[in-house]
Amino acid sequence: MFQKGFLRQLGVLTVAVLGVTLSTVKAQSGEPIQPLPTNIKINDSIAALGKQLFFDKRLSVDDTISCASCHDIDGWGAEAKSVSEGVKKQLGERNSPTVFNSGLNFKQFWDGRADDLSHQASGPVVNPIEMGMPSWDKVLEKLEGDQEYQKAANQLFGSALTKDVIVEAIAEYEKTLLTPNSPFDRYLKGDAGAISDVQKKGYELFKSYGCVSCHQGMNVGGNMFQKFGVLEDIAMNDRSLSNDLGRYMVTNNEWDKRVFKVPSLRLATKTAPYFHNGSVPTIEEAVDIMIKFQLGRSVPQQDRDAIIKFLESLVGEKPKGS
Ligand code: HEC
Ligand code: HEC
After folding, report:
1. Which of ligand 2's atoms lies nearest the C-alpha of 267?
2. 220 neighbors 264 (Cβ within 8 angstroms)
3. Which residue owns the Cα nearest ligand 1 atom 9?
4. Alpha-carbon 120 to chain mean position
5. What is the mean pLDDT of each run of 10 residues along the chain (322 residues)?
6. Which ligand is nearest to the CA of 93?
7. Distance from C-alpha of 71 to C-alpha of 236, rounded to nearest angstrom
8. What atom of ligand 1 comes closest to residue 110's alpha carbon?
């Protein structure tokens, strides 16, 4: 499954230094990144119900916030703020990741505390600073009289509208939110002219500098946890990026301090601001931070800029169902 040419390019040393096991790099025709799928199986009726729920502000305590309030579906599934504002204008502590392509991530949330989309969707509704419902029972009470929802639940799930129906339907909708056919995907599929020479160079640099040892696979990320500040202590920056202990708060394991899910870079050039606390406004600065703290080196600016051009080629079509 692993081709020698690619191994050489990546640099065995980089991989060893970062402690990333080779088996986590899935290679398809020698490449560590694979195109997004274009023919996923979706139950359209369930996804349609999920879409209605995703936009339904009644899922919040004072009917002001829906999932879409913090995940802008007309934009790129995220939001332009550093941290999200929930009910009663309360601010959270983390940046809202894009929901586009999120079904491809091996875990959900920055710290991976939810295993999948349906598990994830049960969180924000009863999170006191997001949608603020006191309990799921109260949500169901509120929606009990909605004949359209009850009818759909009955037809599609053979039951009344329950928490499980709601989260399953939302998850089905989110699965439709893919951004396929990016120039880079077309390039991977054999269209050599789909990306520019600078983007090709950027891709080679993305591999040779070792970005790909963490950001890889179909989603160019989203398939492993890594420490933020592997080679240089992240406390040495001035963006409060060391305050959040990340996965440690889920596992209480010392070695999980400041460990986060490696985010997908598919839409990185569209979804500023950056990192778990949204403290970094530009992609240039975000990549500089990666180079310093994850790779422990300096890189000529022209290489950094080529890498960013490559990241631009990862942006695909807006989802059809959105
Ligand atoms: C108040 C703003 C807000 C609302 C409302 C909200 N989210 Fe989020 N969402 C966030 C933030 C912030 C995170 C990251 C939190 C974290 O990692 O701890 C997140 C994370 C996610 C993720 C994880 C993506 C990934 O790649 O890890 C998904 C999926 C998601 N939200 C879907 C939803 C759904 C479905 C709803 C409605 C039921 C919803 N969100 C409501 C702000 C919000
Ligand atoms: C050792 C693993 C590792 C390496 C190597 C690495 N990254 Fe990251 N990257 C991460 C992690 C973990 C995060 C999330 C950090 C956080 O916000 O807490 C991240 C976040 C990012 C982000 C911000 C994404 C967002 O949506 O906020 C960008 C952009 C990025 N990386 C690009 C790169 C580039 C370009 C390289 C190579 C120069 C690189 N990374 C190398 C692990 C890595």
Report:
1. 26
2. yes
3. 96
4. 12
5. 40 41 48 94 97 98 96 96 94 96 97 96 95 96 96 97 98 97 97 98 98 98 97 90 95 96 98 97 97 95 98 95 60
6. 1
7. 31
8. 17
For ligand 1, whether the C-beta of 221 sits within 6 Å is no
Q: Measured from the CB, is residue 294 less than 6 Å from ligand 2? A: yes
Tell whether ligand 1 has an atom less than 6 A from the beta carbon of residue 105. yes
**Nearest bound ligand to CA 243?**
2
Q: Quick one: 55 exposed, middle or buried, by C-beta within 10 A (0-12, 13-18, 19+)? A: middle
Residue 70: name the closest of 53, 58, 87 by CA. 87
Place of tokens 């928490």: 163
Ligand 2 neighbour 195 (Cβ under 6 A): no
Burial 76-93 (b: 16+ CB within 10 A, else e): bbbbeebbbbbbeeeebe
pLDDT value for 30: 85
Q: Is the CB–ligand 2 distance for residue 291 below 6 Å? A: yes
Q: Which residue has a Cα nearest atom 39 of ligand 2?
A: 211
CA separation for the pair 269, 36 (Å, rounded): 17
One-letter amino acid of 75 = G
C-beta neighbour count of 63 within 10 angstroms = 12
Taking the CA of 166 as reference, the closest ligand is 1
Largest CA distance in the chain: 62
Q: Which atom of ligand 1 is nearest to the CA of 130?
A: 1
CA–CA separation, 76 and 239 (whole Å):
24
Confidence at residue 29, expressed as pLDDT on a 0 to 100 scale? 63
